[in-house]
TrEMBL record:
<comment type="pathway">
    <text>Metabolic intermediate biosynthesis; 5-phospho-alpha-D-ribose 1-diphosphate biosynthesis; 5-phospho-alpha-D-ribose 1-diphosphate from D-ribose 5-phosphate (route I): step 1/1.</text>
</comment>
<comment type="function">
    <text>Involved in the biosynthesis of the central metabolite phospho-alpha-D-ribosyl-1-pyrophosphate (PRPP) via the transfer of pyrophosphoryl group from ATP to 1-hydroxyl of ribose-5-phosphate (Rib-5-P).</text>
</comment>
<feature type="binding site">
    <location>
        <position position="170"/>
    </location>
    <ligand>
        <name>Mg(2+) 2</name>
    </ligand>
</feature>
<keyword id="KW-0479">Metal-binding</keyword>
<keyword id="KW-0418">Kinase</keyword>
<feature type="binding site">
    <location>
        <begin position="34"/>
        <end position="36"/>
    </location>
    <ligand>
        <name>ATP</name>
    </ligand>
</feature>
<feature type="domain" description="Ribose-phosphate pyrophosphokinase N-terminal">
    <location>
        <begin position="1"/>
        <end position="117"/>
    </location>
</feature>
<dbReference type="GO" id="GO:0000287">
    <property type="term" value="F:magnesium ion binding"/>
</dbReference>
<dbReference type="GO" id="GO:0006015">
    <property type="term" value="P:5-phosphoribose 1-diphosphate biosynthetic process"/>
</dbReference>
<dbReference type="GO" id="GO:0004749">
    <property type="term" value="F:ribose phosphate diphosphokinase activity"/>
</dbReference>
<feature type="binding site">
    <location>
        <begin position="223"/>
        <end position="227"/>
    </location>
    <ligand>
        <name>D-ribose 5-phosphate</name>
    </ligand>
</feature>
<keyword id="KW-0547">Nucleotide-binding</keyword>
<dbReference type="Pfam" id="PF00156">
    <property type="entry name" value="Pribosyltran"/>
</dbReference>
<feature type="binding site">
    <location>
        <begin position="93"/>
        <end position="94"/>
    </location>
    <ligand>
        <name>ATP</name>
    </ligand>
</feature>
<keyword id="KW-0067">ATP-binding</keyword>
<feature type="active site">
    <location>
        <position position="193"/>
    </location>
</feature>
<dbReference type="InterPro" id="IPR037514">
    <property type="entry name" value="Rib-P_diPkinase_arc"/>
</dbReference>
Length: 291
């Protein structure tokens, strides 16, 4: 197998190739004055199984275009099998037509990934809540991996949690809380969230007692930080000890980090599906195992 680096996931791609002990293909990339992209693979891929690793984080349109160029080049240069590994899949939130006339963006990007040459696709903690299984939108085998276990193990070991509780900040995060709680043998539950606007949410706890316990709040994405901030404030009011704000994808728009820290989080921890100052856990082992 060969691993090809996209520019949004260069270090991650290198780490995956090291985990697998396989070849790594550097890509020469440049941008023309008019904004067009150029890519050139620096190794022969003919007859090989190839994984192209490229997150579609900010700037999503440019990162998607680079992904399409890489997939098409790899296929066209005679690779035997092409896997698209897209740790953060942008456009996943528009997974339905909410208003008449809207594009269903997730379906559009799925078609483009397939038609660019991918035989298979891997994503991590896909943010498409209304879709039960990733393959529903792809015409090729699609795998939705999760970083919940590696995140939970890292936090538990690194911070030596006391009588921990793992909580999802809303019902949609139940699956990550369950996975994370089970990975470290901790109690887990989820909170109830009502969205009041694009940045405002109202969160209420359920049954589990958090008083004097360390809490790990786990979610797929921290975007504006509104969800985490509200959850932390509620948990503080309920007497929680140290609170860790944990997510797979650190989108971190606006002042998300500052707000979460100001709300009282002891630490914010995320993965390297998107590079950031809180990307302390690598998903390289998760991807390598799946590949
Ligand atoms: C929502 O359904 C997601 O799982 C996250 O809770 C949400 O995207 C986080 O967004 P924000 O940080 O802007 O509250």
């Amino acid at each position: 197998m060969l691993v090809v680096e996209g520019s949004a996931s260069e270090t991650l791609a290198k780490n995956v190739s090291e985990e697998l002990g396989c070849g790594f293909v550097q890509v020469e990339k440049k941008q023309f004055p008019d904004g067009e992209l150029y890519v050139r693979l620096t190794k022969d891929v003919e007859g090989e199984e190839v994984a192209v690793i490229q997150s579609t984080c900010y700037p999503p349109n440019q990162n998607y275009m680079e992904l399409f160029l890489l997939l098409d080049a790899v296929k066209d240069l005679g690779a035997e099998k092409v896997s698209a590994v897209i740790p953060y899949l942008a456009y996943a939130r528009q997974d339905e037509r909410f208003e008449p006339g809207e594009a269903i963006s997730l379906k559009t990007v799925a078609k483009l990934i397939e038609s660019s040459g991918a035989d298979e696709v891997y994503m991590i903690d896909l943010h498409a809540h209304r879709i039960e299984k990733a393959p529903e939108v792809f015409g090729i085998p699609a795998h939705n991996l999760t970083a919940a276990s590696v995140l939970a193990k890292y936090v538990n070991e690194e911070y030596d949690l006391e009588n921990p509780v793992v909580l999802g900040p809303d019902g949609e995060a139940e699956k990550w809380a369950k996975r994370a709680g089970e990975a470290i043998g901790a109690d887990w539950d989820f909170m109830v969230k009502k969205r009041l606007g694009s940045k405002e949410v109202e969160i209420t706890p359920r049954e589990l007692d958090v008083s004097e316990r360390d809490v790990m709040i786990i979610d797929d994405i921290i975007s504006t930080g509104g969800t985490m901030t509200e959850a932390i404030q509620i948990l503080k009011d309920h007497g929680a000890e140290d609170i860790y704000a944990v997510c797979t994808h650190p989108v971190l728009s606006d002042n998300a980090l500052e707000n979460i820290e100001a709300a009282g989080a002891k630490e914010v921890i995320a993965t390297d599906t998107i590079g950031s100052e809180v990307s302390k856990v690598s998903v390289a082992p998760v991807i390598a195992e799946a590949l």
